């Protein structure tokens, strides 16, 4: 391809027959993406982790969430390349006979699912409140933003622990694995909405004085429509950056909650739960139970964070 | 008056504290579970009772070999088979300075048997307490009871005046959502006072200088912290941050022993760990089977019994540190234990039994399990979940800290469980306690404490009849035979599924000497610590 040889970003603007894919390849973002090797590596790792999580059921040798598939007799086997390793347990097994590799794949699926759902929930809540605050101003703005300010004074993990604790004491014994998932998503969502709300509010306050908004108001469009159809799309750039960085934070938060024992139960472990379980066997020399989930979590967070950083720089007009 | 008294006591305490030898040490102790309530009638659980033993005392106590010795009662005699007389120790003071008298015993006897108490069976319901004089109490019974005082070491005497002044006449139930005064403060006669208590965080015990007995310890202070995480607890011991931990996780015993600064004291414990199934209700509380209770069908119970592989649990989960059991009592406490063998493991037969009972594809049920009470409790439950999954019984595991767990499954919480794991140490070191408290029918109109810890609601009138004979049989050989018949009935009914006796594993710094009692009560008033 010629663009690899001539890396000038305006060179192909007028090329004929460009579909959306071609437009994407021609964009500033992709240009900056190709310029950064680190970002490409991070993207590759992130994609790899997502694929591993999505295709976990095909790649894993057992379903670690199904107690019937765990054989106690296979417990505490060390990784395959060590002296006591046994096929098919690539990364060894834990005390319940759970294959660590399979548990990581399934655990990552949970971590990513909670992370993404948490980000979507936080985004929806934050964007909605931010739009209302920015567009209407006045009392709504004051109330929403003061709540946001108050919440900003607490670390997000505290809010998540609080929400999680309240939900658990309300639901009590009726809490099964699925509702634990939902509680985690809500806890994470409620602790991360502030950033979205503040960013959207700022953008909206800039946008709403522009002519196109005045025009839309003049032809009598209702406020919700103006907000969602006309103002919102113009604020999406920063939202995307926050969402990416928040995904990493949400996954970390979930892992922290699970590590503290407030998240996913032992019978349906996420990466954080696996690290908590494995932590108990570290002194006994059974390092693989904690090491591999830890490496997986660190790799996942690092690559998503690198992507987020890059996206922030790429979308920041001042850095161009 | 009481203000002045406590002032006097405080001044006296401060005075004596200054006079303590300079070598008095601070001992730091960590347990996997927390100390929730200070009310000594809230939770009948070994760790809690042992904590309370530092600040409260009963009329009797048990020594290092679990023999009954006098405590607040100096001596006692039986005037007739149904009448006992207790001579109380004179000059004993509560921590606030109140004198200990017969009124406190009468009050405590009422309070321990009041609604909300978890210690109902410690003092028989038919025992009537009467005051002869300030230091003499008579106990009259409806029928002879040779083991009347066998559980009195766990029945702690409280100060009547203090309870009345602080609105704590009624015991605090385990399921109480708001703490009472007595659950946050103490006023016992024991060798230690509680200086500060933050439930779940830290409790500081301070030596009580006015204690009636010469101390065997050289401590001025015990700092208790719960450390739930196994790895953190071991690390704290190895780094010298704490001096005593209980339990040492099985996987770390070797490491602690080879560390050079601490040793693991191990011994077989007399506690039996078992699994129970709700056989009392017509419909299980937590199951997908509606309108009937699968556990009422003996074939289902047999299937579950024969699916749980105790040997595998021993080798894999307990790392060899357990003794698989067929009886609900430890072999050390019952000489005929060797006559019993466990029904054979048979998962394939179990599947067939389930199918015969009408559950060819199994069913779903929730299992309650503590995760900070017994050695590897949650891991054992998970292993059981895995084994039962293989015959199609899908178990949803609810593993909780013991405070929530006990509040849900014990009598004050209404036995809210369908399937559970529990451990039991007979406080009397005798089979009668097991047969009466755990294997006896609940709701016996004549005996309200029978089956108090029978969370499964197992009921066999023949067992109860034998239990009653066991209570009054004086001849040991005959008594053992009666007990044997009762246990045989329970096994035939698959009433409970005993798993094993676990091992004691206390991690003790090499600077500390202490006595390990077989009932796993960590009693630090027998501990001495070398100077730093």
UniProtKB/TrEMBL annotation, chain A:
The signal peptide here is: none
Q: Does the keyword Ligase apply?
A: no
Under the heading InterPro entries, the entry gives: BP-dependent_transpt_permease, MetI-like, MetI-like_sf, OppC_N
Give the GO terms filed under biological process for this record.
transmembrane transport
Subcellular location per UniProt equals: Cell membrane
Membrane-spanning parts:
38-61, 110-136, 148-167, 179-196, 239-262, 287-311
What membrane topology was assigned to this protein in its record? Answer: Multi-pass membrane protein
Q: Organism's domain of life?
A: Bacteria
Gene Ontology cellular-component terms listed: plasma membrane
Q: Which SUPFAM superfamilies match?
A: MetI-like
Principal cellular location given in the protein's record: membrane
Under PANTHER family, the record lists: ABC TRANSPORTER PERMEASE PROTEIN, OLIGOPEPTIDE TRANSPORT SYSTEM PERMEASE PROTEIN APPC
Q: Which family does it belong to?
A: Belongs to the binding-protein-dependent transport system permease family.
Please give the name of this protein: Dipeptide transport system permease protein DppC
Automatic annotation (TrEMBL), chain B:
Q: Which PANTHER family match?
A: OLIGOPEPTIDE-BINDING PROTEIN APPA, PERIPLASMIC BINDING COMPONENT OF ABC TRANSPORTER
Q: Which GO terms describe its cellular component?
A: ATP-binding cassette (ABC) transporter complex; outer membrane-bounded periplasmic space
Q: Name the InterPro entries for this protein.
A: Peptide/Ni-bd, SBP_5, SBP_5_dom
Gene3D superfamilies with a match to the protein in the record? Dipeptide-binding Protein, Domain 1, Dipeptide-binding Protein, Domain 3, Periplasmic binding protein-like II
Q: Which UniProt keywords apply?
A: Signal, Transport
One matching Pfam family is SBP_bac_5
Annotated Solute-binding protein family domain residues: 67-443
The name this protein goes by in its record: Glutathione-binding protein GsiB
User: Lineage from the top down?
Assistant: Bacteria, Pseudomonadati, Pseudomonadota, Alphaproteobacteria, Hyphomicrobiales
Q: Which residues form the signal peptide?
A: 1-24
Q: Give the gene that encodes this protein.
A: gsiB_5
Record the organism.
Bradyrhizobium ivorense
